Fold ABC transporter, ATP-binding protein.
Amino acid sequence: MYLIETKALTKTYKGGVQALRGMDLQVPGGCCFGLLGPNGAGKSTLVKILLSIVRPTSGSATLRGIDIGKAEARRGVGYLPEGHKFPPYLTAEGVCRYFGALAGITGKELDRQVHEKLELVGLGDWKDTKLKGLSKGMAQRVGVAQALVGDPGIIFLDEPTDGVDPVARQGLRFVIRKVTEKGAVVFINSHLLSEIELLCDQVAIVDKGEILRQGTVSEIVAGVQGSKNLVKFHTDELPEELWSTLEERGAERKPDSRFVIEIQEDAEISGLIDELRAAAVMIYAVEPQRMNLEDAFIDLIGADRGLQVEKREVA
Ligand SMILES: Nc1ncnc2c1ncn2[C@@H]1O[C@H](COP(=O)(O)OP(=O)(O)OP(=O)(O)O)[C@@H](O)[C@H]1O
């Protein structure tokens, strides 16, 4: 059973905007799932439908196998909205208590949950501070903590690292991993591709209300049109004769005694190293130049919009 599943989900807003055009999505448990797409792609609409904030026009969706039309589907669901505005007069603890109580948690269990989740996001010492006295990144961590109170099995986080500094961001990655290890799904909406690349086991790229591709980051990156397997070498100056043979095979000189060459298989790297060493050339570094999620995203969205997209240059 998938923890989140949608079938042919569509949404046409009043005025005729088709925000979703038949979305089929399956998200298993124990995974961090990233939803990526440009502005207006339909990401928030999808999350709002799953949380019953917006009604779909057609199609169906389930959370833990329960139809989203039933209130029961939302039991055990945590949510951090984008740009949340929790009352500034509440303390960090107050926010977590408020949302924990709304989820039906009471008494000692609420005390335990609130304490545990604030510690988890590194705000145990700030529990009595009012939100207006916390930095943006700290308030965001309070938002993550409240979404985790009650140990929900499905957690939606909209732009969770917005305003969070790099050290705290790493802390949040640790928190998310801990949660998914226990079998929960963390569903992330983010514009930060590098963050999604670090965090998510599964990614879906959406545009104009449709999923263009879904899979692991490496599966999505492997599908980039015209993606090349490039390797960058950093060596001593090459003898001219050797350079000529490499150039004939498509090698390209780069600054500071570096060159880049396309290979078909990783096994070719050893052969190249042997050739360089046979000519007594010192090798300082060999770096495969992998495409990243941003390249894949730009490639897919560009193709979807009929744009010619320049591939990233290897420096
Ligand atoms: N309440 C609404 N009424 C009419 N149109 C809407 C409404 N909400 C969203 N839309 C439109 O639906 C489309 C999808 O919007 P949505 O907010 O779901 O996209 P998004 O991918 O979350 O975008 P962003 O990254 O900018 O938040 C857009 O064209 C948007 O203008």
